Amino acid sequence: MKARTQALQDGVRRTVLPSGLRIITEEIPTTRSVSLGVWVGIGSRDETPAMSGASHFLEHLLFKGTHKRTAMQISAEIEAVGGETNAFTTKEYTCYYARVLDADLPLAMDVLCDAVADSLLQPADVETERGVILEEIAMHEDEPGDEVHDVFTEAIFGDHPLGRLISGTEESITPMTRSQINSFYRKRYTPPNIVITAAGNLQHAAVVKLVRKALAGSALDAGSADPADLRQATKRVRTQKPHTVVRNRDTEQAHVVVGGVGIGRNDDRRFALGVLNNVLGGGMSSRLFQEIREKRGLAYSVYSYSSQYADAGLIGVYAGCAPGKVEEVLDLIRSELDRVAVTGITAEEIARGKGMVKGSYVLGLEDTGSRMSRIAKSELLYGELMSVDDLLARVDAVTPEEVNAVAADLLAQRMSLAVVGPFDETAFPAG
Predict the structure, then answer these.
(1) Which of 233, 239, 127 lies closest to 177, judged by CA?
(2) What letter would DSSP give residue 359?
(3) Residue 329 near residue 255, CB atoms below 8 Å
(4) What residues act catalytically?
(5) Three-state SS at 369
(6) Range of the domain at 367
(7) Are residues 174 and 97 part of one domain?
(8) What is the pLDDT of residues 44-68, one digit of tens each?
């Protein structure tokens, strides 16, 4: 089987290697840098309860050394040329990335592919990183503004993998063995699950050669297969009945999230929801910001958001305020949600919301890192690469009726409530 190459858009090309590994590049000759990413279509939702946190654990371990390089050499070789490298784990994928000068792309490709394909996972490193991750989990619990979002997600999805912490918990990380992590690594990190993307001053054919050279003889240079299929929305994720979850913490500020079930990422209503979200709580001109912060000074931070997965989604409104003001803030949030669900939003607000969606998207593509992420997510999550013009046209095509319909559908539902602060459950009666 030969490698198959196709042009996706002007400057964007895609090659599928015989192993099923995909390489996608975007040529941006006006820059002097290249952003490179190795994306693995495996995240925390692919773990069993006993392996909760394995993807994140592995993300830490892959930079700890290979047969060719020590952990120090992995970081030092990139930093010696002024580059940077890091990684992150989400619920549906993991990314290892680097950004370097264009002339240093061969080095970055070799280092990054080496780390992802040939990590040793030494027992001593497993124990060291176990301690680091347990500290990370403890640190996260000391950040109530972050913790409340995890509490809310669990309130919506319960014990479904989407409801679990990406980092895992102390109970899952502590007993996890090197053998278990290595088995997860070798079974999941296979060529069909991997997409390598690069954006910047590059040539596609040269990048393909660099990938093949970097992976030659490794575990990712074997077999003949087609790329993995998109994660399928075979059935809707079961969600929890609306309820309240309170985490008692001795904090100076209370943190709350009110929200409910949203939509999946391939739902055609996502463009209308993006407009609605910006009007509701997406910026300083949004309804919630104006009502709660500007007019009443009840909270420093208040915003709405949505999260979308292959087969599920959620919507939420966050606010951080003094504990004594929580009841008033919650009343205002709920009143605004009810008002928008019933009466919708104005044509002027919809025009402003569209402008915010389009502006944030285009301005977010001003660097090679965001362009690299765009082509990777298009491949991994959507299976198609929409041009910027096509995406802007989709936003422009959103009608007031579509925005108000999605508002009526999502905002009229009974909502769950997550609270982190100096309270107990009895402080927030059901309903």
Answers:
(1) 127
(2) H
(3) no
(4) 59
(5) helix
(6) 244-427
(7) yes
(8) 999 999 999 999 999 999 999 999 9
